[in-house]
Amino acid sequence: MALPLGFTGARLDRADQVRVDAERFAAVVADPRALCLALDGIDFVPGEGGGLHWEPFDPADTRAPMLLGIDEAGVPHFVREPAPGQRIDARSRTVMRLLPLLSGEEAALYGGVRSLVDWHVRHRFCAVCGAPTGLFRGGWGRRCDACGAEHFPRVDPVVIMLAEFEDRVLVGRQPGFPPGFFSALAGFVEPGESLEEAVARELFEEAGIRVADVAYVASQPWPFPSSLMIGCRARALDPALTLDETEIEAAMWVDRAGVRAALAGDMGAPFVSPPSLAIARHLLEDWAG
């Protein structure tokens, strides 16, 4: 597996012991070196030379600070709680055109910020009693003063997998994909099933194939809005496809030469490959050798 995967490799110390200690948290908020990440809604604001734009922490800003972590020099890094009533579209991928401006480490940090900010926007009210919630734990949780319930950011597990049959691999496309674009099939893990069962179920539901020998390859956070992509491979028992056309517009088996041509961006390749940030591309690179 080629490393690093997109949105991995952030190096800030998440400082959980500071988050849970009100006195220590107040001390890092008061640190004159503290920095705050500039955002445009949920998208990052590029700095002058590219990269993330960090501003001096403004104590006059009334929005609650959320501690992202502390760097090797001891400088705390924050992002502000979204303004009341602010609406964002965390599923929008318009920021993808800006991501090449970031280093891998910056993209990883921004991905976490994006998911965290979105979570706060969607959890302003208690899921237990409906009362308003407020930040605690340095911005990594919300507490309901009415009923005492505590809520914490979550990620949605998603299996993304390549099925293999006789030295060919299965790729598919959804109706909204760009022309010629194919990728690994994927789907959310449902309650009461293992990762292996989720892989088998999704491949059968979307492509009509039965598989065995499911194997884990690698994982990747995907902040659109907050998924953990769990990359796997599996051996198909039969190549005949029966597509769920509400989910999959087209699918095909591709040999190694075809996958390598797609990864190289060859004009005659059988499909357009996923971008380097996506774990689907890493799965294809790993399979193609």
From TrEMBL:
Keyword Lipoprotein among UniProt keywords: no
Give the signal peptide range: none
Q: Which PANTHER family match?
A: NAD-CAPPED RNA HYDROLASE NUDT12 (PTHR42904:SF6), NUDIX HYDROLASE, NUDC SUBFAMILY (PTHR42904)
Task: Say which family it is in.
Answer: Belongs to the Nudix hydrolase family. NudC subfamily.
Which NCBIfam families does this chain map to? PRK00241.1 (NF001299)
Uppermost EC category: hydrolase
A molecular function annotated in GO for this UniProt entry is: metal ion binding
Query: InterPro entries, alphabetically?
Result: NAD-cap_RNA_hydrolase_NudC, NudC-like_C, Nudix_hydrolase, NUDIX_hydrolase-like_dom_sf, NUDIX_hydrolase_CS, NUDIX_hydrolase_dom, Znr_NADH_PPase
Catalytically driven reaction(s): a 5'-end NAD(+)-phospho-ribonucleoside in mRNA + H2O = a 5'-end phospho-adenosine-phospho-ribonucleoside in mRNA + beta-nicotinamide D-ribonucleotide + 2 H(+)
**Pfam families associated with the record:** NUDIX (PF00293), Zn_ribbon_NUD (PF09297)
Q: Which UniProt keywords apply?
A: Hydrolase, Magnesium, Metal-binding, NAD
Q: What is this protein called?
A: NAD(+) diphosphatase
Q: Which cofactor does it need?
A: Mg(2+); Zn(2+)
Q: Which residues form the Nudix hydrolase domain?
A: 153-278
What SUPFAM superfamilies does this protein map onto? Nudix
